[in-house]
Specification:
Number of domains: 2
EC number: 3.5.-.-
CATH class of the largest domain: Alpha Beta
InterPro entries: KFase/CYL (IPR007325), KFase_sf (IPR037175)
Number of strands: 15
GO molecular function, one term: hydrolase activity
Structural class: alpha/beta
Keywords: Hydrolase
Largest sheet: 9 strands, mixed
CATH architecture of the largest domain: 3-Layer(bba) Sandwich
Enzyme class: hydrolase
Oligomer: single chain
Strand order of the largest sheet: 1-15-13-7-9-11-12-4-14
Shape: globular
């Protein structure tokens, strides 16, 4: 399905067609809990590690603090950071430790998807079905994701990273406008401009420039509002390329508003429960992009392990790219 052929009036049919055409159900057995991370094997990690030349590293995470982008949409809030013990407590000698020993402790409360994060395989369902065709009600309950909890992915997300700076190649001043649908043609043109290939087992990072715009315009509706993003038509490419995972600098990965009337995140509905694709959102790709533009290398070692939170359907992450 190309972007030009998308029938805005019939999201149900388009989703059903794509789900059937691009399904990976059963590909790695009925007990699979990794989805497309199965493509990221030992050989791919060796390939990624060999890309380290200068040892320069970049954190691709936004800050986790009260000044983040969340405004309560879908009951998501910014992190609440509270100190349990402070230097003031220690200076007053009220901590109860001997020989002048003092310390500080803290706690944080936050939705797991309020900042830079991965969507787990239990995050999205299609007509009551979770990844690999399992009944959604038997996968995720009030006790969490009992089958595909993100803890299963904790040791797997490390390998060859590829940056596709679509904002730079296709946009103006390094940014794409809200509502811009990134198609397969845009992705392949960007890869060609960068001199990189994308294929099996890669961790692909797509920069739209949306976070950069939020930095100079203010958060506005960055979390939950209009944004550039992947076109629904890229479902074919996401399946065919056999990438292990993909992340963007936007809150919702796919273009907003969506390309259908009366739809909500239709590409998620295909990519997660049917393709089994690991999706990352709200990644900070700006410093990495600047370095890639300067040295002309858009591939690197990337490690981005989710926190092994038992039964979670998503996880905060501090991705590290090393060149």
């Amino acid at each position: 399905m190309t972007a030009a052929r998308i029938d805005r009036t019939d999201p149900e049919a388009a989703i059903a067609e794509a789900a059937k055409a691009y399904s990976n159900w059963g590909r790695w057995g009925e007990d699979d809990v990794l989805g497309t991370l199965n493509f990221l094997d030992e050989a791919k990690r060796r390939e990624g590690a060999a890309l380290i030349r200068d040892g320069v590293s970049f954190s691709l995470s936004q800050a986790f603090d009260m000044d983040g982008p969340q405004k309560g949409w879908r009951r998501r809030t910014n992190p609440v950071h509270t100190m349990l013990a402070t230097g003031t407590d220690a200076a007053m000698g009220g901590q109860g430790f001997p020989h002048g020993f003092g310390g500080a402790d803290d706690v944080i409360a936050m939705p797991l998807q309020c900042s830079t994060q991965w969507d787990g395989l239990g995050h999205i369902f299609d007509h009551g079905k979770a990844w690999n065709g399992r009944p959604a009600e038997k996968v995720v309950t009030s006790e969490g994701d009992l089958v595909t909890g993100i803890e299963h992915m904790a040791s797997h997300v490390a390998g060859r990273g590829v940056l596709l700076d679509v904002g730079l190649v296709i946009g103006q001043d390094g940014e794409l406008p809200d509502g811009f649908a990134v198609t397969e043609e845009h992705l392949t043109a960007t890869a060609g401009s960068h001199g990189v290939t994308v294929g099996r087992g890669d961790l692909v990072l797509v920069r739209t420039g949306r976070l950069a715009r939020a930095r100079h315009e203010g958060w506005g509706d960055y979390a939950g509002g209009p944004a550039p993003g992947l076109s629904f038509s890229t479902a074919d490419w996401l399946h065919r390329s056999e990438i292990a995972g993909i992340a963007t600098d936007t809150w919702g990965f796919e273009v907003r508003p969506n390309e259908f009337d009366h739809a909500f995140q239709p590409l998620h509905q295909v990519a997660i429960p049917h393709i089994g694709l690991l999706i990352g959102e709200m990644w900070d790709l700006d410093a990495l992009a600047a370095h890639c533009a300067a040295d002309g290398r858009y591939e690197f070692w990337l490690t981005a392990a989710p926190l092994p939170i038992t039964g979670s359907v998503g996880s905060p992450v501090n991705p590290i790219a090393v060149k």
